[in-house]
Amino acid sequence: MPTPDSPHFAFWLIQAFVSLFLTILFLQSGMDKVMDWRGNLGYLEPHFAKSPLAAVAPLMLLVLTVLEVSAGVVTGVGFLELLVLGKAQIAFWGTGLCALALTALFFGQRMAKDYAGAAILVPYFLLTVVGLWVTSRPR
Questions:
Q1: Domain limits at 60?
Q2: Whole-Å CA distances, 108 to 23, 31, 133
């Protein structure tokens, strides 16, 4: 971690806050799916009932749950790496998993013709792209 008077401190803060935000977002979302599997499946089955994905809703929920929990855990470890070592390598890979999870969510929303739901994901995706950029940059 650079010292607060370092010219790199503001950039490090951006890396840290984006990583922390994505950690919270994906751990909460993934753990919600783990803790309330039936409720989430009960929402997804009718949501995808008229789409080509109707038959695979349980498999999609499983894949998405694994993706979200993995993204949250890896980004969280990346946040810790930023705090302790000042490096963003793990945060970069975690942010990449976040981008993959958001792309999967976006795909599902579009396939279900839930265009409003898909649009809500855009700001999260943009933040994630910024996160990829800032965690890929050397100090």
A1: 9-136
A2: 22, 19, 25
DSSP class of residue 17? Answer: H
- Distance, CA of 132 to CA of 19 (rounded, Å): 10
How many structural domains is the chain composed of?
A: 1
Segment 93-128, tens digit of pLDDT: 999 999 999 999 999 999 888 999 999 999 999 999
In a domain, 3, yes or no: no
- Is 57 in contact with 45 (CB distance < 8 Å)? yes
Q: What is the pLDDT of residues 6-18, one digit of tens each?
A: 888 899 999 999 9
Whether 32 shows a pLDDT value over 70: the answer reads yes
Distance of alpha carbon 67 from alpha carbon 108, whole angstroms: 14
Q: Where are the alpha helices (DSSP H) in the chain?
A: 9-35, 37-47, 57-85, 89-111, 115-136
Which DSSP state fits 56? Answer: G
Whether residue 2 lies inside any domain: the answer is no
Q: With CA atoms as reference, report the closest residue to 72 among 48, 47, 101.
A: 101
Specify the pTM. Answer: 0.90
